[in-house]
Amino acid sequence: MRVVHYINQFFAGIGGEDSASAPPERRDGAIGPGRRLDALLGDEHTVVATVFCGDDRAASDPASLDEIMQLIRSADAEMVLAGPAFSSGRYGVACARVAGAAQAAGLIALASMAADNPGVAEAGAAPIVESGETARQMGPSLERFAAAARRVAAGEALAGIEGVIASTRRLNRLDARSAAERAVDLALARFDGDKTATEIPQPDFGHVHPAPPIDNPREALIALVSEGAVVPMGNPDRLESARAHKWLRYSLEGLDRLAPGEYQSVHGGFSTVAANADPNRILPLDAAREMERDGRIGSLYQEYLVTAGNGTSVADAQRFGVEWASELRRAGVRAAILTST
Amino acid sequence: MPDQAPRRRLVHIVSGVRSGAATTLDRGEVVVGDEDVRRAFTDPALASVSLSVLHPGDSARIVKVLDAAEPRTKGAGGGGVFPGFVGAANATLGVGDTHVLRGVAVVTAGYLPRAQEALVDMSGPAAPLSFLASTHNVVVEFEPAPGADWGEVAAAMRAGALRLAAALAEGALDHQPDVIEELPEPRIVLGDVDGDRSLPRIGVITNLQTQGAFKDVYVRGSSFGGSQPTAVNPAELDDGIVVSGQYGHPALKNPTYLHQNHPIVAALRARHGVDLTFAGLVLSPEPVEQHAKETVARQAAALCGELGWDAAILTKEGGGNADSDVSLKMDALEEVGVSAVGLFAEMAGADGTAPPVVAPPERSPAMVSTGNYDERLQLPAVERALGGARFDLLDTAATDAMDVPTAVVYASLSPLGWGRLTAAAATMASSE
Amino acid sequence: MLCNLLPIATRVGAPRMVPTRGIPYPAGDPSLSQEDERAWRRTLLETALVAVSTHVTQPTVFTPGPAAAKSG
């Protein structure tokens, strides 16, 4: 099959974080890790082209995915392989979206990343093959990725393929008995000594890798972000008060504080009386401006990013986080202060 | 607790509802009298109210559902039910007979600015998820008076619905009940840790979402916010001491009707003396601050310890932060030697692949799942809608076919354990 | 991150946390006078700056210093 390999700017060799805003590009043949991948795919499959894009651009600019798909189509791809992205969140999300879009377009598509990469939730119907945590595990990760791709291309069922991350789905159903009756059974079981009985497994949130510290806040561009649903009065862009599927940006230019009556919180998870009396209780603009004037911080980013964190699924919250990180990095922001309700 | 006459429910099975001139019970059919409707809703915050009835199986939807109550009375004038709203706040309750109209609910529906859009379908795929799809519903819609304060509008509807519910039940006072239910009550008092231990003593702790305007719950007419965990005679729930004023998180809401018919109290009563001793009910607030949540958790655990409970079942109201109230109490209970089980709704994402809960307990894994909040439902178009012409969440006509998360179906993930909905793992592809 | 429910934030791995005084007002405290509340907000942000300037490897709570003590 004709294979197109998707990678990021770093593995394409055009640069690191300084090039994370690079737009999508296509090169003929395999480059970087694609050479080894091409060899591992054997004679039946050939990497005919490599498409790459800067991680921030891919994760934060909605047009990127369309551009990437056009480049993939222009190479007459039959199969798309994206990654391995290891634990990199922005790269993982990009790989997952590319594989998901390619699968939806009728191509065979797989992505590769660590099991706790936020991209795992973003691949739609495309399978994800587990990689190592870091590029130090490039060799074994590529071997597993190529082996899985050959078996998927041969039409094997995903269930038998090594390394394909099991997407364990929690599905609703009606039980024969009410939750109240089951709770009484569970209480009796626990009292009788069954210390492991439960209907919900302990959740796994993966790992967050803390960003390195900033050197000097007095020189840094700093952003205010919030899940407290502070929006202009009247909520012109209709931010959802619960289960938000989107986030919004609003300009702070020329503003010294968020005036009551001009901004409001539409958060549905708490009483907003205090927030609406003084919206700076949610987004601390007045104090941040004061610190900007005092020289405690270099400057404040000209926009704030906001969503409503209320009944939001972890998958959506991770996506918002990746998009915010990409957005702010592209703008040169060095630190973000997130207010959480 | 002194000995008393057996506590009884005199149950009248309702087979239909219609409106008419005077309230009465006519061979199982409730007639809702115009005069009682008028008298129930005289508050100047309301310009007008209108009444409609819906029946199980109707091609009908109620949107903007606010609360529901079951008609009950203990005598003329309500006899003290819904204290603080209908009866006196200090009425002696939890004793004697209560008339119950089973199979009917008084439902309030309409726009309130801070309410989250909630719906009930009387038929179709969402019907098995909500208790209101199996009751005959007296739906009260309203127009606020011009310039009225929204808090006063909400209060007027809350009190009015309870007055109407009591008035409807009074129509049954001179009728023979269809069923008489005798209710076992806990006989455990503080310090009675050495009493009969032949069966495990299991009680229930119910957290009330007391988080300010439009997110508040009332006990005997007053907000329970700022209160300490309190042991309450469960029979007082039957007489309506807990009333909901909480309009967030539709699926995770505990309407007044379900406090009156507390499912875990019912499940514990059903097995009292069989394989457990029903040890009682503790009500607790859900504060909005971490230290207060921790303090309340320790207080609740200490109280259950003093009552000699062997195990406790924990219930919540609301979303993620309410989970931590359950988890903190479970951990505190386990620390004092009381086995703890909690009811949780899952937030596992639309496809069910995300972590199901964000604030699980650490000392007891024992969680009951009331279903995944995010899974989507495809609802068919319906012939008739009450509560509003539009479904604001999707900006569609309220009668349209719609694709919604389970989270908008009223009380569908009932934290009090009413429902049969649950979520379970289905593996789509095996790992290595 | 300025937040009140630290156990949840810790559990999901938030790297740098500053504790606040209530869910509905992560950058305020309505029990204070306007002037004192503004000072408290500044203290929260100063603490946040310390947090983002500090190397961490796991979820870490940065508590506002004594100067930030609640003055009523």
Features:
heterotrimer; A: 341 residues; alpha/beta; Rossmann fold; six-stranded mixed beta sheet; five-stranded mixed beta sheet; 14 strands; 30% helix; globular; B: 432 residues; four-stranded mixed beta sheet; 28 strands; 33% strand; disordered C terminus
User: Using DSSP, what is the number of strands of chain B?
Assistant: 28
Low-confidence stretches of chain B: 428-432
Query: Any idea how many domains of chain B?
Result: 1
Beta-strand percent range of chain B: 25-35%
Assess the beta-strand content of chain A as a share of residues: 15-25%
Distance between the termini of chain B: 60 Å
**Mind describing the biggest β-sheet of chain B?**
6 strands, mixed
Output the number of helix runs of chain B: 7
CATH class of the largest domain in chain A: Alpha Beta
Helix/strand-derived class of chain A? alpha/beta
Architecture (CATH level 2) name of the largest domain in chain A: 3-Layer(aba) Sandwich
How do the strands of the widest beta sheet of chain A line up side by side? 2-3-1-4-5-6
Task: Give the overall shape of chain B.
Answer: globular
Q: State the share of residues found in helices of chain B, binned by percent.
A: 10-25%
Oligomeric assembly: heterotrimer
Over the alpha carbons, how many angstroms does the gyration radius of chain A reach?
23 Å
Would you mind describing this structure in some detail?
The complex is a heterotrimer of chains A (341), B (432) and C (72). Chain A is an alpha/beta fold and 341 residues long. Chain A folds into 2 domains: 2-160, Rossmann fold; 217-339, no CATH class. Chain A has helices at 33-40, 55-60, 63-74, 89-104, 138-153, 179-191, 273-277, 285-293, 314-330, and strands at 2-8, 25-28, 46-53, 79-82, 108-113, 128-130, 168-174, 221-226, 230-232, 248-251, 263-265, 299-300, 303-306, 335-339. Chain A has a 6-stranded mixed beta sheet, sandwiched between helices. Chain A is globular and about 70 Å long. Chain B has one domain (7-408). Helices cover 19% and strands 33% of the residues of chain B. Chain B is built from 7 helices and 28 strands. In chain B, strand 15 (215-219) and strand 16 form a beta hairpin. In chain B, helix 1 (34-40) runs antiparallel to helix 2 (150-170) and helix 6 crosses helix 7. Chain C has a 3-stranded parallel beta sheet. The longest helix of chain C is centred in the middle third of the chain and has 19 residues, at 34-52. At the A-B interface, strand 7, helix 6 and helix 9 of A face helix 5, strand 20, strand 21, strand 22 and strand 28 of B. Strand 7 of chain A pairs antiparallel with strand 28 of chain B, so a sheet runs across the interface.
